[in-house]
Write a structure and sequence with these properties.
5-stranded antiparallel β-sheet, alpha+beta, Oxoglu/Fe-dep_dioxygenase_dom, 5 helices, 183 residues, 11 strands
């Protein structure tokens, strides 16, 4: 296992223990982090940033998203009372977002993060997100360990590739994609 995968695995171990999942075996590992995708995002200077959006409001379909920002900034997360909070870049740090897949598998105990990117009027911006995903062939739904104690499922079982297709078929619309998996 590569060092980056090991770090992600350790983070998932901590998150799973809080859900009473005792062990991440091969099957759970595939479900939680069976595939990874990296993007290189380039946002050019925009002369009128108030007239455009870098990336519309959305939550990621991943289990986790690990983001490296440059020094420019532009990432905003939705806070309380529908306010947008700037996530200032900190040199050498990573931003870790919970994605929709983990919200579904945790039966809503973990919440995916609604976020957006605002265009910049003075500098080009670069960001590098790594999306940690289930394999496309995996079926995601509340983990059995959560339902063993009688907890009612909030989400149905859904083929992960169908969930991702649903996300890309429509415009960014906040956290509405997760409604696709709700019971």
């Amino acid at each position: 296992m590569k060092r980056s995968e090991l770090v992600i695995r350790q983070l998932l171990d901590v998150l799973m223990r809080r859900l009473n999942v005792k062990e991440i075996d091969e099957k759970k590992e595939s479900l939680l982090m069976g595939s990874m995708r990296i993007n290189l995002n380039y946002y050019p200077i925009c002369p009128n940033p108030e007239l455009t959006v870098g990336v519309g409001r959305h939550s990621d379909v991943s289990t986790l998203t690990v983001l490296l920002q440059d020094d420019i900034g532009g990432l905003y997360v939705k806070g309380v009372h529908d306010t947008w909070v700037h996530v200032p870049p900190i040199r050498g740090s990573l931003v870790i977002n919970i994605g929709d897949a983990l919200q579904i598998m945790s039966n809503g105990r973990y919440k995916s993060v609604e976020h957006r990117v605002i265009a910049n009027g003075s500098s080009n911006r670069v960001s590098v997100p790594i999306f940690v995903n289930p394999r496309p062939s995996e079926v995601i739904g509340p983990l059995p360990e959560l339902l063993e104690g009688g907890e009612e499922p909030l989400y149905k079982q859904v083929l992960y590739s169908d969930y991702v297709k649903h996300f890309f078929r429509k415009a960014h619309d906040g956290k509405n994609t997760v409604e696709f998996a709700k019971i």
